[in-house]
Amino acid sequence: MSRHFALTEMDPKDLNSIIDRFLNFKEPVMAEPNIAKKSPYIMQLAPGDYWWCACGKSANQPFCDGSHKGSEFTPVKFTVTSKTPLVLCGCKYSGNKPYCDGTHNTL
Ligand code: FES
Ligand code: FES
User: Fold this and answer.
1) Which of 100, 106, 107 has the most ligand 2 atoms within 8 A of CB, as the residue to mutate?
2) Residues 37 and 91 sit within 8 Å (Cβ to Cβ)
3) What are 78's strand-pairing partners?
4) What share of the chain is helix, strand, coil (3-state, %, to 5)?
């Protein structure tokens, strides 16, 4: 046996609550990173693990120095295995963090 949902079966207080939540719905606001530089950092790094700054507030760009603490940002870990030059995002808006994807050209 199926049961059909009917608004008329609802308690008017519940209905008002649903309508109120629908009308007042707002997308959660995402914090925006600080633009450290509107161009990438091109670097050769020794093999090892690194933490790329996602918040843009580090004084040691493009690496995290802990300045993100208390924000919703966390650094992005990446591992270098060879001495190939890397193109690391400086603007913090890349869609392929920690690497530059050209998004800085649109800022
Ligand atoms: Fe920016 Fe840590 S200082 S992510
Ligand atoms: Fe951020 Fe290029 S520097 S996308």
Assistant:
1) 100
2) yes
3) 50
4) 20, 20, 65
Which tens digit of pLDDT belongs to each residue from 36-82?
Answer: 999 999 999 999 999 999 999 999 999 999 999 999 999 999 999 99
pTM to 2 decimal places: 0.76
Residue type, 6: A
4 CB-contact burial (10 Å; exposed 0-12 / middle 13-18 / buried 19+): exposed
CA distance 89 to 15: 48
58 lines ligand 2 (CB under 6 A): no
Tell me the pLDDT tens digit for each residue of 9-40: 667 777 777 777 777 766 667 899 999 999 99
Residue 74 alpha carbon, nearest atom of ligand 1:
4
Q: Is 13 helix (H, G, I), strand (E, B) or coil?
A: helix
